[in-house]
Amino acid sequence: MSTFQISDLFHTSWDSLTPKKCWRIIFGMRVYAAIHQTDKKRLDSELATAADFMLEALKAAALPGKWKLINKQTTNEQKIDIYHDLFFHKEEYPFRHFPIANFSSLRNGLRLTAPEEAMSNCTYGQFKYADNEFSKMVMAKEQGDEQAAEEQINRLVASVYLPKSGKFQKNATDQLADKIGRVAFPWQKELVVEAYANTRQGIIARCPTFWPQPEESAEPTAAQATGPQWHELHFNIAESEVFKGFTTVDQANMYDVFDYLEALAKRKTTKTQ
To answer: pLDDT per residue over 161-178, tens digit each?
Structure first.
């Protein structure tokens, strides 16, 4: 194995993977991390489960026809090292693209198309509604309400994916969410959740002054619906000279809006120093 480079044996980006392989890697990472991040003493059966899911992630990340070679010529310790060296553990390769190109069903009259990577074509109005659905999904999961969480996932997908017109239609969310619930597989919807969560985290990192990270020592707070705060902010931005009007803000690219908010926050911070 010492004569090979990682790129000779494994995919080096999310874009080159099929949606199902993306999910196998993400789910494997979740299980592996959940078992190894706990402070409690781990049972042998738990460690075995973590190892199995790590291998599944490695297998999914391997280039076509390479897994038998990798599996045969590496020890378990080497496989662990390789696992941690692969692209999906690196900050510069976050999962922010939406590999399910569309959710469609002639029978259900459904045709929704994936947004661009990191939702770069998303308007502030769309983000406001999608983030509200996401935060309510987190709330439902914290409360152990699986049915409500599933409904919110359907609504999140319906808010993130776009109709044929390419324009977000908030009034159609209820109807679209119901169709998503009938058409989409759970793993497909979980890919959307993962991509959205990572995109959201990317916005937070992009705007550290406007959207500061909580201190590590701070106690975790219960999730709350974010819709009201984004709606109030919508009105505030609409009064600015830059955007001038509620509709203008609604249709503005979300990154333009958050870059503007970050610039304002920096100015305020500078003035108070």
So the answer is: 999 888 898 899 999 999
Q: Is the dihedral of CA 219, 225, 230, 233 positive or negative?
A: negative
- The pTM of this model reads 0.91
Query: Are 37 and 161 in the same domain?
Result: no
Contact 127, 118 (CB under 8 A): no
DSSP string computed for 156-212: HHHHHSB-TTSS--GGGHHHHHHHHHHHS-HHHHHHHHHHHHHHHHHHHHH-TTTSP
Tens digit of pLDDT for each residue in 17-27?
999 999 999 99
- d(CA 264, CA 259) in angstroms, rounded, equals 9
**94 in any annotated domain:** no
Clarify whether residues 120 and 176 are in a common domain.
yes
Identify the H or E element spanning 138: helix 124-142
54 and 16 assigned to the same domain: yes
Q: Is residue 95 part of a domain?
A: no
3-state helix, strand, coil in the chain (%, to 5): 65, 5, 30
Pull the structure tokens for residue 189.
């919807």
Beta carbons of 180 and 103 less than 8 angstroms apart: yes
Query: Could you tell me if 195 and 115 are in contact, meaning their C-beta atoms sit under 8 angstroms apart?
Result: no
Domain count, the chain: 2
Instruction: Assign 111 to helix, strand or coil.
Output: strand
